[in-house]
Amino acid sequence: MSSATTPPDSDPSQRRRVHSMLKHYYGLNEEGKVTEQAESLDPCDINGPHFDPEVYLNKLRMECSLGELMDHESCMVKQIRSLDSDMQTLVYENYNKFISATDTIRKMKNDFKKMEDEMDCLSANMAAITEFSAHISGTLQDQHAQITKLSGVHTLLRKLQFLFELPARLNKCLELQAYAQAVSAHRRARCVLQQYSHMPSFRGIQDDCHVIMEQLAQQLRQKFRDGGSSAKDLSECVELLLQLDEPAEELCDKFLSHAQSRFEADLQGLEAELKDSPVTDTGGGLVQKTNPGSNPVSPSSSSTTNPFLSPTAGTDILEFIDRGCNEFVSSLCLVIASYQELFINRPQEGELASKNIPEMANGKLHVFVDTLAARYFSLVERRIQEEKGVSDNSLLVRALDRFHRRLQAISKLLPGSAVPSQGTEIVVRAARERIKQYLSALQTFYHDSLTDVRQALAAPRQSAGGASVSGGGATSKDATPSLPELLTSLSNFILNQLKSVLASVHLFTAKDITFSNKPYFKGEFCSQGVREGLVVSFIKFICQSSRQYCESAGDRGGSTPPALLLLLSRLCLDYETSTISYILTLTDEQFLVQHHTPVTPVTALCAEAREAAQKLLNHYVKVQGLIISQMLRKSVETRDWVNTIEPRNVRAVMKRVVEDTTSIDVQVGLLYEEGVRKAHSSDSSKRTFSVYSSSRQQIRYAPSYTPSAPMDTNLLSNIHKLFSERIDIFSPVEFNKVSVLTGIIKISLKTFLECVRLRTFGRYGLQQIQVDCHYLQMYLWRFVSDENLVHFLLDEIVGSAAHRCLDPSPMEQSVIEVICERG
């Protein structure tokens, strides 16, 4: 067997396999203990205790073929040989271990014999030493009591010598300013002197020491009061005074009183700086004006106030905050640290521990700090309130950041103090006030921009000598841009200014600003402050201020130019269409607005803007209609229609009405789309007067021509109105040119109709009305959505004139057409 001659350590894996097989055979676990296993009762289990070879062989012969039996025999032979080999290896290993154990036991026998001899020798030596020590103790026993007595006498004499020399030693320490040594020496002797104070000699020493210590305490008080020493010397001074039974409360009050005088000087300096720095707003434009031609609504440089420029002052707010932080806050931190080291953080031992000094001193420190901080905060708030200009917000934000950052040192030095939270409240109030200032500045900027727009709208009348404000046909070089350019410039200026304001306000939430991580600046400042308080409020202000232009009294719409109403209506409509959504989206993305609190939805703002646009456009229609109506009313009221001459041409006022209507059409077309018209007949201009055809006139006016016929024209007219479509004169207009012109023409013709109903006409007066109405029909049908509306109103005008005519003899249609074509 080759495996029997192989060394056991040559193949570790082979050894482990063999061991595992043996352990498995003997039923051992990893610790070498026999594992309890259920015994197999199967007689065919070759590894079981109840194995029966005959049964096993019979089973194999019955179940296996000859080839399987041969294979099973070969496998069993291999296992037997392997087990024999493993058994030989195991015996060899155990034999080597037995040999090694025998050698070890033989060596231990020799070592223990030598050690036993050494222990016997050591025991003899210890016995001799014990006997010698007992002999020495017996010899010196009598002298030991005398030595102890002499040592006690020597110690007592040294103490007495220390007591008698104590006054001189204290004086010497006082001269050398060795106050700590003097206090330590006096504390060592104080109890003894107090105990033997009934003896005259000790009484005298006690009195001398008391006088000297009073002088020392006086010098320590003076040194503490002066405060010119270093922190270490001051700390030592306080400790010595406390050891001399100086009242701790009185020391705290003196320390804080001395610090109060220094802080008073700092606060007075800051207050004097406030009084010596008057703040005045500088004049100038809201924005820098680069080119009057390219920026038609750039606010003029003649504005009296400028909400976007910083005030001129002796020192800016950053310098003021720096001075306050470097002088007041730094000194306050030093005082807090020194005070805590002296009275609060110092280990209390002996009698001082029972006085609970830290608690008392901490209370006084909190009151002292809160009082001074309140005065300092009032000065800071006064200086912040003087920051009226909003052109450079970075200076204020940097100042507030520095102010907030330096106050955090107090929170670390003095936990539980309300000073840092009060400082944060000042920063929050400053941010809120800043938003209000920016809103006010934006409102002022908007008003000034509208003022410049009004000036630009009035400029064509001054420079072009009667040219229309539409701007479409102005040819003079100094004429201002047209309405689309004014609208674009105004919208861009407002949007750019709002973006600039948002960029300035965004500085409050910059990552490098310490207070930007406060809950207010992460939530309420962004949602309620910037979004609602600034952006939404400004949009609402634009809509509200625009609606105010519709509340002006007077027939001519007050002093508001109609073109401004039209421009503002388009501006509000643009806001409803896209601008509001863009601004609010920009704000939400820039400030990461989280709508935890209720905010104004975009749809509500768009609805408000659309309402303002609708109201402005309705008012524009009303104003323009009233302007044309005023001309028609005066032309009707100032003419003698009974005695007028035979008409030869169209009246000038009708030409002016057509000219103004055309001008309005051009003006509205610059800002609004065309709109939808009903299909026009191919001969609208020709057929316009067909409503006054001879056949229809005969129906309406025949009774007037025949004296015997009854006067039933009113009945015919009323029957005709019953079957006519009702016309709503002041109905809301749509956002297109056709609807606007239709509204204006309806108001104008309705006024013309009502004025005609108040007059009495002669023959030629009626014919003049016929000529005027035919002329209006030739041109006005082009501007309205439905030409039948113009037909109906003009028909009513002519019919009303005929009813009120003393001699209703209408002019021939051909003559009317000749006169109108010639006019």
TrEMBL record:
Belongs to the VPS51 family. The keyword Transport applies. It comes from Cyprinus carpio carpio. GO terms for biological process: endocytic recycling; Golgi organization; Golgi vesicle transport; lipid transport; lysosomal transport; protein transport; retrograde transport, endosome to Golgi. Involved in retrograde transport from early and late endosomes to the late Golgi. The GARP complex is required for the maintenance of protein retrieval from endosomes to the TGN, acid hydrolase sorting, lysosome function, endosomal cholesterol traffic and autophagy. Acts as component of the EARP complex that is involved in endocytic recycling. Component of the Golgi-associated retrograde protein (GARP) complex. Component of the endosome-associated retrograde protein (EARP) complex. This is Vacuolar protein sorting-associated protein 51 homolog. It is found in: Golgi apparatus, trans-Golgi network; Recycling endosome. Keywords: Endosome, Golgi apparatus, Lipid transport, Protein transport, Transport. Residues 290-308 have a biased composition (Low complexity). The keyword Transport applies. InterPro entries: EXOC2/Sec5_N_dom, Vps51. Residues 46-279 form the Exocyst complex component EXOC2/Sec5 N-terminal domain. One of its GO terms (cellular component) is GARP complex. Residues 278-308 are annotated as: Disordered. PANTHER family: VACUOLAR PROTEIN SORTING-ASSOCIATED PROTEIN 51 HOMOLOG (PTHR15954).
